[in-house]
Amino acid sequence: MLRTVTTAAVGLGLLASGCAPDSEAPVKVSVLSRSSNGQYVPTQVELTTIEDIVGLKGTVGDLQGGARIVIDPNDPALQNATTDTVADVLLKNKGHDVKASYISQKDERTGEDVLWPADFHSWNMVTSYYNLERANEYFRTVADVKVASFEPSPTLYYFPDFIQAQLGKEPLRDNALFYPVLQSFLVLPFDQIQRAPLPLNAGVMAHEYSHLVFNRLAYATQALPVSLTVWSSESPSQGANVLKAFDEGLADYHAYGATCRSVSGCDPRFMAPSFDGGPFSAVTDARDLSRGDRCMSALLYTRVQQQDVGTFTADGAEYQVGTILASALYQAGRSTGQEAQLQRDIVSAYYDTDPAKPGIYQYTQMVLGDQSQFSLAVPAAAIISHISDLELRKAVCNELMDHLQIPRELLLGDNLCPASAAGGTTCPSIFQ
């Protein structure tokens, strides 16, 4: 059904101007949302954080169209940029306010006015905002992230020209991402992904929103995180490799958690609506959290320790390690029936000044001068130390020891794994 809507509406024009309906929240509007049978259908929702329904601005995001972002290592301005100026250098055109168009219709059941987007881009944009709002609500309520951590609200650049000169001169397509240098989201034009463009996929948007939360807490809202910047300049780059892998794995796990609050239910294959049946179908299986047989290989373990970050990420090794992590957490949460508690405990481990149980950010600062001390066991220990329930803590310990092959002795201790945690039997040891 989504393809039908797309084909019919795209000819109506990009960012067409419309009337100016009342923007005072809550605003009843139709979005394209996944139903209980897995289809994307027009769905009436309430936007509770919106401040400008035409310009799609609110406390969770501000949509901007027409931006141009260019990453060119040979750009002299970029070579001379500082932390304070790099965003301005990359943002060649800041774009403009979007203008969504709507048709107001009466809801036959309630008699209330409901705004219906009048063209495809209005559907796409308002659904993008709604999915940001859903992700924000998940992190506020389930993960217990304080409102102050979301301030200032991020910009969402809608269909920008995003050019990475090292990859070519043409703008990239078929992606949605959180870009920390700009502290913003980018929703790129779609080309090959037609089944469910990424901004319509609430799980994908929750994944990207998780990166924002990780940046705000585990990186202390640094546009250029000091730990990544310092460690990425060295070889090998174990610390940078571990941070990237945990950032990706935890984003997948939180995206899964966010789907559990939808009418379609918990979905460990949340990427499937967008990627199945197209040129990127393999992504769904590669990132399926429900597979319990994912194991760290000796080669991948060695790559984490010994490769520079450029080589490590060139073929997506951070996603491979991240998927193992996400799957291990999925198994632990499901086996104990405490998924929401685990999701909350994980986020509480991002930033914590308590010396008895430091957060991930605090651990990075402790070993900033020697990233060889920031192994897979370190952020794992930060998470484990923030799990108060003994049964859940033991389950997480066993899964991480088993699937990530973290040596048991590195996870035992005060506030860490209990002595009864012995790992699992799913994965063969890579240390024999």
What is the number of strand segments? 14
User: What sequence of helices (H) and strands (E) makes up the elements?
Assistant: HEEEEEEHHEEEEHEEEEHHHHHHHHHHHH
CA radius of gyration:
22 Å
Helix content: 25-40%
Strand content: 5-15%
What is the number of domains? 2
Nearest-integer average pLDDT: 91
The main sheet comes to: 7 strands, mixed
Oligomer designation = single chain
Shape by Cα distribution: globular
Structural class: alpha+beta
Enumerate how many helices there are, as a single number.
16
Contiguous runs where pLDDT drops below 50 for at least 5 residues: 1-19
First and last CA, distance: 53 Å
Structure, described:
By secondary structure, this protein is α+β, with helices and mostly antiparallel strands. It has 2 domains: 1-200, no CATH class; 201-426, no CATH class. The chain has 16 helices and 14 strands. Strands 3, 4, 5, 8, 11, 13 and 14 form a 7-stranded mixed beta sheet that branches. It has a 3-stranded mixed beta sheet with strand order 7-6-12. A hairpin with a 5-residue loop joins strand 1 (27-34) and strand 2 (40-47). Helix 12 (317-336) packs across helix 13 (339-348). The chain is globular. The protein starts with a helix and ends in a 29-residue tail after the last helix. Mean pLDDT is 91; it is low at 1-19.
